[in-house]
Design brief:
It is built from 32 helices and two strands. It is mainly α. The protein has a two-stranded antiparallel ribbon. The protein is globular.
């Protein structure tokens, strides 16, 4: 028996029992380490483990105190946060992927840690003198600035990956190559001001993102992920192709909390993928379903991953408004996957899990509804106008409280410290990614490069909005490959979102557009990390799994165009629009979007009631895409095409049944 066969057999057994034994957990960890850089960490034992764990807990504690107790100046808080994160990256992440040595920190990493402390602590201690001197920083400060930038970039390489590093390096080289800026000016702008390394991304990360990551770590300790999976089973497990629908629902819910498409693919996929295969789905399809649904978890309100907090800051829109406006696009995304999964199940004649093997929805909800309380409390506080940092902390305390309800989920001192440590670990990659993305943003601000890019793309599009949107989409996907969503969004928000706003798209719609296409890079070939993680669990061909995931997530490639062309989907209206008109626009866009998406899904899947001929499939896709355009005429043409072809398919299927 091959290693893949053994892995599949072990995972299937684990999925049937709903538990993961030690061997299975090790296999999943191997997959995580291969596709998720955050899992490729050093191994520590005994005193070394305690020391590193203590530093991680201290980092989490510092983040909480900085936001809720101390009122430090920004040029103290930001470099202290980033410097501490960089030091921890050198302790936690090895220089080379796959390093197996235990309790070992090489000399070069000790040097890196000392260099980080020297550069960042010097900045913190002497920030007032540096501010007073302005650009006239000393030779020592130039050297320390260079060191501070380089160690942050090396930390990014270890915790995030090379793609972001390449992009940042290209931007910095552009600043030098332009010939208009001296070394002193570049280092001053990129290291010592709040427009570079410690710019807006680090500000948002240290103020909001890290607290919500901590909240997510505590929420997971309550057992909510298992509750979500069981809840999804009770809702959709018995329907046609039930396990795949369970994967869609549970991954949407779990991904909302985890914020990592790869991590969510592995954790929920360990249960859902083997069950999908057992039901009759092909391995490539099973892995793709999990990857597509897990990736979409980052656009699922109310948490929406770390990038949503940056969006609130960069687009100047309240976070509560963003999560409210993101509901309809998220519903369309997951509806698209759900439709494709259902059609595939019908085409293959797949059944669901016997109802007697599934939990009862009402009994399950009655027993565990309280686990949702922290999430509900979080949303309520944000919508009530409370600060995001305080809302996150109150919701975290609520997580501790609800964990006490049942003995099996009760949080002890050990699990409490585990959550603090987990929050710190999850924050490290986001922190260094935000720092390096800040370098890119700093170069764009300093050189005016963003304006040049905007001018060229607007010129290339010939003033046609749809062409500008397409070029922006391609740029987002290419730059997003292998780059965390947070960093990708920062790059796109500073370079591409202004293109769309110049073309007349509202600010929030433009930022949501680049946000969506930054996310789908995780499932778009050739660097589709979430899809490859799903294929590793499913034992399928990676590239075919990635192609299937892209096909399943077709809504992610359509929905941004809908709200870009018709911002009413995001509840954005022209001034003076009456309430009645708003309601009519929303009703129209909901109907046309869902019908159009259904038509496109049927055309891609080539099945509805019975197999769809190629020419009909093409017309279904065309009809569905016509409904993207907000014009009434195109909506009517698309509606006639899709509904007419679906009725024709239904008639043909009935004829086939009678003839049989």
């Amino acid at each position: 028996m091959s290693d893949i066969d053994k892995k599949e057999e072990t995972l299937e057994a684990a999925a049937e029992t709903g538990a993961l034994d030690e061997s299975t957990a090790e296999k999943l960890q191997e997959i995580m380490e291969k596709y998720d850089r955050e899992s490729n960490v050093r191994k520590y034992t005994r005193k070394a483990k305690v020391a590193v764990r203590s530093l991680l807990i201290a980092f989490t504690t510092l983040c909480i105190l900085m936001n809720l107790v101390f009122s430090w100046e920004e040029r103290i808080r930001r470099p202290l946060f980033l410097g501490f994160a960089v030091v921890l990256v050198f302790l936690v992440f090895p220089a080379k992927k796959g390093s197996k040595r235990v309790n070992h920190i090489p000399l070069y990493d000790i040097v890196m840690i000392l260099a980080t402390l020297a550069s960042y602590l010097y900045f913190v201690i002497n920030f007032r003198a540096i501010i007073n001197r302005g650009i006239m920083i000393s030779q020592t400060e130039i050297i320390l600035g260079i060191i501070g930038i380089l160690v942050a970039m090396e930390a990014c390489r270890r915790a995030v990956g090379i793609p972001l590093l390449v992009v940042a390096s290209a931007f910095i080289l552009y600043a030098f190559a332009s010939g208009d800026y001296s070394l002193r000016l570049i280092i001053y702008n990129l290291f010592y001001t709040t427009t570079g390394l410690i710019g807006t991304p680090i500000s948002v990360c240290s103020t909001y993102v890290v607290l919500f990551v901590i909240f997510g770590a505590f929420l997971e300790k309550t057992g909510i992920s298992d509750f979500f999976i069981q809840l999804a089973n009770s809702i959709a497990g018995s329907s046609s192709g039930g396990p795949a629908k369970v994967a869609v629902i549970s991954s949407a819910l779990c991904g909302m909390v985890s914020g990592s498409s790869v991590g969510n693919t592995v954790t929920t996929g360990a249960v859902t993928i083997p069950l999908m295969k057992r039901t009759g789905y092909q391995p490539e399809f099973a892995g793709a379903v999990e990857a597509a649904a897990s990736t979409g978890g980052q656009i699922m309100p109310p948490i929406m991953g770390a990038a949503a907090f940056l969006m609130a800051e960069m687009a100047g829109v309240p976070y509560g408004s963003i999560i409210a406006r993101a509901i309809l696009p998220a519903a369309l995304y997951f509806s698209g996957i759900f439709i494709m999964v259902h059609l595939e199940a019908k085409r293959l004649g797949l059944r669901g899990i016997p109802r007697e093997e599934l939990p009862n929805f009402f009994a399950l909800f009655k027993r565990s509804w309280y686990l949702l309380f922290p999430l509900v409390l979080l949303v309520w506080m944000i919508l009530e106008g409370r600060t995001m940092s305080r809302s996150a902390m109150v919701a975290t305390v609520a997580c501790i409280a609800v964990s006490m309800v049942r003995k099996e989920s009760r949080m002890t001192l050990t699990t409490f410290l585990d959550a603090l440590e987990g929050g710190a670990r999850s924050s490290l990659s986001v922190a260094v990614a935000c720092g390096v993305a800040g370098l890119i943003s700093g170069v764009i601000t300093m050189t005016g490069l963003g304006q040049s890019i905007i001018t060229e793309i607007v010129k290339l599009s010939g003033g046609h909005l749809i062409i500008a949107m397409f070029l922006t989409m391609i740029t987002c996907i290419v730059l997003g490959m292998g780059v965390p969503t947070t960093a990708n969004y920062i790059i796109m928000a500073t370079t591409c979102a202004p293109i769309l706003t110049r073309m007349g798209i509202p600010m929030l719609a433009a930022h949501m557009f680049v946000f969506y296409f930054g996310i789908v890079a995780d499932i778009t070939p050739p660097v589709a990390l979430a899809a490859y993680a799903g294929s590793a669990i499913a034992g399928s061909r990676p590239m075919k799994t990635a192609i299937n995931a892209t096909r399943l997530a077709i809504a992610a490639f359509i929905v941004p165009y809908i709200f870009g062309l018709n911002p009413a989907m995001l509840f954005i209206f022209d001034e003076g629009t009456s309430t009645a008109s708003m309601v009519m626009q929303i009703v129209q866009i909901v109907i046309t979007s869902f019908v159009g998406l259904f038509g496109v899904s049927c055309g891609i899947e080539r099945y509805v009631y019975t197999k769809v001929p190629v020419w009909r499939a093409a017309l279904l896709i065309v009809g569905g895409l016509l409904m993207i355009n907000p014009g009434t005429i195109t909506d009517l043409i698309g509606l006639v095409l899709v509904v007419g072809l679906l009725l024709r398919q239904r008639r043909d299927s009935r004829k086939a049944v009678h003839a049989g």
